[in-house]
Amino acid sequence: MSDFLKRTWAEVDLDKIEANYLAIRAYVSPQSKIMTIVKADGYGHGAPFVAKAFDDAGTDWFGVSNIEEAEQLRIAGIEKPILILGYTPPEFAGMLIKQRVTQTLFSMEYGEQLSAAAKEAGGTVDVHLKLDTGMSRIGFLFHGEEDAPALLQDGAAAAALPNLRIDGVFTHFAVSDEPGNPFTRTQFERFIRAVALLEEQGLRFSLRHCCNSAGLLNYPEMQLDMVRPGIILYGLTPAVGMPLPIELQPAMALKTMLFQTKTLTPGTPVSYGMIYRTPSARRVGTLPIGYADGYARSLSDRADVLIHGKRARIVGRVCMDQCMADVTDIPNAQSGDVVTVIGRDGGETVSMEEIAAQMGTINYETACLIGKRVPRVFFKGGRQVGKLNYILP
Ligand SMILES: *Cc1c(COP(=O)(O)O)cnc(C)c1O
C-alpha cells in the first residue's frame, strides 16, 4: 500500500527542481546572487521540500509573500535570509525580528508603523526598499523626475527611522516577458536613477535587484546584485512562446486514477447540465478529480488526460470531486489505471501550459490552484523521499 491517498496526487521530481536551479545559476552572472521565490507553497509544488532542494543546491535568498510562509521555511530548517515581498501587519514586527526575516518597505506610512512596532518589540527589522518604477503595485513611486523630490524626502526619512535597517532596494517589472517591449528598459532606467538619487542622500544598498524569471532571461544586463526567479525554477515558462535560453524541466505531474468505466448508448447525457451527449456508443470512465482539486470547471468538455500513453477527452461538466473521460479508443483502460492529468505518459504530454490555455489563464495560476487536498509526493533518484498531506499533516 502506498503511504499517501492514491486518489488524486501530485508528484514533484526534486532532481528536476535542482536541475532547473543549476541551469539558472549557470546562466546568471556569477556576481549576482539568487533569491529563489517559493511563495504560494512553492507555486503549488510544496514549499518545505522545494525550498530544501534550492537550499542544498546553493541558493542565496528565499522570497515569500507573507510572514507565515517565512515561518514555514524556518520550521523546515531553512536558515538563509528570507524576504517577504508583500505586506506584513506592523504588529508582527516582533515575529520578523525573532525569525530574522527581511520585510519589504513600500511607503513611509508603513515605515513609521513598522519602526514603532519594532521599537516596542525591542529589536531591529531588516528591510529592502521597494521602488515602484511602473508596475503601480507597491513601492515608493518613481515614474519620472517629477517624483524625485518626494523620493529624496522619503528616502532620507526612511533611513532615519529607528529600529529599521535598510540593506536592499528593489523593483518589479510589468512586461519583462515581452522581449520587444521598451517599457522594461524604461523601468530599469528609472530604477538606476532612483537608486542614484537615494545614494546621494547617503543611503547605501548592498543588494539591488529587479529581475523576475523573464527579466533575468531576457535582460541579462539587468541582473545587478541579485535576481528573483520564480516560475522557471519549477520548469514552467514565464510566457507562452517566449524563447528560452536555458533548458527547463517541468517538475510536477498531477495524477489521478480511473475508478469506474461503463459503456453508454448513443445520445446518453453525461454529467451536470447534460451539456454533452454521447454521439455514438461510447465507453466512459470516471476520475476522482474535480474543480475542488484545482481541475477547473472551465476544462469541461475540453481538456485531455493521458491513459496508457494515449489522450482521452474530458466529456461533460467537471464536478467538484469527479469528472468523466471518453476512453472508447483506449480499450485496455480499466478501473485502477493511473491517469496523468498534467505531465507525461509515454510519448504524450499534457503540459501545465496546455491546461492553463484551456482554463483561460496562465501556468502560474494553474499550478497554484492545485488543491490542498491533493497530497504532494516527492521523488529523488526515482525514489519517493517524502510527502505533504495538507488535510492530515
Ligand atoms: C512572484 C515574484 C517574483 C517571481 O516572478 P516569476 O515571474 O515567477 O519569476 C519576483 N519578484 C517579485 C516581487 C514577485 O512578486
UniProtKB/TrEMBL annotation:
The modification N6-(pyridoxal phosphate)lysine is found at residue 39. Pathway: Amino-acid biosynthesis; D-alanine biosynthesis; D-alanine from L-alanine: step 1/1. Keywords: Isomerase, Pyridoxal phosphate. SMART domains: Ala_racemase_C (SM01005). Its cofactor is pyridoxal 5'-phosphate. One of its GO terms (cellular component) is cytosol. InterPro entries: Ala_racemase, Ala_racemase/Decarboxylase_C, Ala_racemase_C, Ala_racemase_N, PLP-binding_barrel. GO terms for biological process: D-alanine biosynthetic process; peptidoglycan biosynthetic process. Residues 251-379 form the Alanine racemase C-terminal domain. It comes from the Bacteria. Substrate binds at residues 137, 320. Its EC number is 5.1.1.1. Catalyzes the interconversion of L-alanine and D-alanine. May also act on other amino acids. Belongs to the alanine racemase family. NCBIfam families: alr. This is Alanine racemase.
